[in-house]
Specification:
By secondary structure, the chain is mostly helical. The chain has a domain of 71 residues. It contains 8 helices and no strands. The C terminus is likely disordered.
Length: 149
């Protein structure tokens, strides 16, 4: 019995002695230096060179319509869109504490906004905003102007 125990310990000890030690660099890579050797402009240059020109999420990973291109709307169109959004009542309902997108009144407001936005009202609102001369006139501002006259 003693010989079996001694043989077991001999084999186990031989395994420990013959095992090679591996330096930590081979496990996790070289250590990260505490101080960078590159300047800030060099790091930014490398980043910008490696970044794609259009760094948006690919359409196949998105839900919903694609993002509009930068500058897709003019200032007058954006203001007209805001005016129609406010006219449909969405400006008051979206920030309420009891906001529920499944409520019938909200769906009616969204349908009204969609009708206004894609109908002749949008074109008329863009023409009205462009006619003010300043390029920025909301419905509230135009109401204040007409009250002064």
């Amino acid at each position: 019995m003693n010989t079996k125990v001694l043989a077991f310990f001999a084999v186990t000890f031989a395994g420990f002695v013959s095992a090679q030690t591996v330096p930590p660099e081979q496990w996790v890579g070289a250590p990260i230096p505490a101080v960078s050797t590159l300047s800030r402009s060099a790091v930014m240059g490398d980043y910008l060179a490696s970044a794609p020109a259009d760094a948006r999420t690919p359409q196949e990973f998105r839900v919903g319509p694609p993002d509009p291109q930068t500058g897709a709307l003019s200032r007058a169109e954006a203001v007209a869109d805001l005016n129609l959004w406010l006219r449909s009542g969405l400006g008051q309902s979206a920030w309420r504490d009891d906001f529920d997108p499944m409520r019938g009144s909200y769906r009616v407001q969204v349908a009204m906004y969609q009708r206004l936005r894609h109908g002749p009202e949008f074109t008329a609102e863009v023409a009205r905003v462009q006619g003010t001369g300043s390029g920025f006139a909301t419905t509230a501002q135009s109401a204040a102007l007409s009250a002064d006259e």
